[in-house]
Amino acid sequence: MTEIDGYEVLGLGIYFEDLPVGRKFRTIGRTLTEADLVNFIGCTGMTEVLFSNTEFLRAESDIKQRVVPAAMVYAFAEGLLVHATMQHTGFAFLHMEMNVTAPTFAGDTIHVECEVVESRRSESRPNRGLVRTFNRVRKQNGTVVLTYNPLRMVKARA
What are the CA-CA distances from residue 121 to residues 126, 130, 147 (Å)? Predict the structure, then answer.
């Protein structure tokens, strides 16, 4: 427990010792709004017609709804995880593989299911651990839309 001025600080991340292989947790949900989509494609320059042209979707695409780029789904999933698990304890994002398994649309609500699949102390930095999780991003109907397996460097307790 961390205290500042006699108050327990909430919202701090999870330490290496609290992430043994087999631990499972999930995040809260987050709806991906039309405004989120417009802002994301605007700030990243991902102005592909699939994301930015509803006339193209109506007339030419097999997908008729406002599809969300997988990069945005991943970024929002990481936001949900960082907020819940890595404040002050997540030190490095080292590697990952990612698979897109189904489309996500504006208006879908996502959450992340996380399972620790690797957890070991760093050989070069004993006050750190290396933790790999297998993450499933699901939308409101249970469909898995994205999977990825990040390897992170995480703070160990003193």
Answer: 6, 6, 25
